Amino acid sequence: MSNISGLRPSILGGFPPFASLVTENTPYKQIVLCIPRMESVTKHDFIKKVLERIMTGSVTRMTEIPHKNNSGFKRVFIYMNVMKNAKNTSILEERFSQKKDVKIIYDAPWYWKIVEANK
């Protein structure tokens, strides 16, 4: 079962099709995450599935960049619309404001380290 250090997946199911249309009046906000180092064989759909389940949001875009020094790894930038008032979103923002990372366990003991993407 996937989780974020101390966080559990939300019981909320799917998201409405308009989830990618974030405005001030919607309960969603856009965040940009970075997984600095991930095996290059990890599939785009798997990353999306894990993050959407844990972060109570929808992935709108992903950018994969091959690692400079090791062809077996890549860096991934994830653009997500997440619920503004979700507990996981609040904890994530708090960790990022302290310049800390978040570990997402996708298949124990394996995890991804996630950081806030540079603005």
Task: Report on this structure.
- With 119 residues, this protein is of the alpha+beta class.
- The chain has a single domain, classed as Alpha-Beta Plaits.
- Helices cover 19% and strands 40% of the residues.
- It contains two helices and six strands, in the order ββαββαββ.
- A six-stranded antiparallel beta sheet has the order 1-5-6-2-4-3.
- Strand 3 (57-66) and strand 4 (73-83) form a beta hairpin.
- The longest helix is centred in the middle third of the chain and has 12 residues, at 44-55.
- The radius of gyration is 14 Å and the shape is globular.
- Mean pLDDT is 82; it is low at 1-21.
Provide a quick synopsis of the model.
The protein has two helices and six strands; from the N terminus they run ββαββαββ.
Features:
119 residues; globular; single chain; alpha+beta; 2 helices; Alpha-Beta Plaits
Number of DSSP strand runs = 6
Principal-axis shape: globular
Category from helices, strands and their pairing: alpha+beta
User: Under the CATH scheme, which architecture would be assigned?
Assistant: 2-Layer Sandwich
Mean pLDDT: 82
- Under CATH, the topology is which? Alpha-Beta Plaits
User: What is the terminal separation in angstroms?
Assistant: 31 Å
Order of helices and strands: EEHEEHEE
Number of domains: 1
- CATH class division: Alpha Beta
Give the topology, please:
Elements (H helix, E strand, L loop, with lengths): L2 E2 L23 E12 L4 H12 L1 E10 L6 E11 L3 H11 L4 E6 L2 E7 L3
Antiparallel strand pairs: 1-5, 2-4, 2-6, 3-4, 5-6
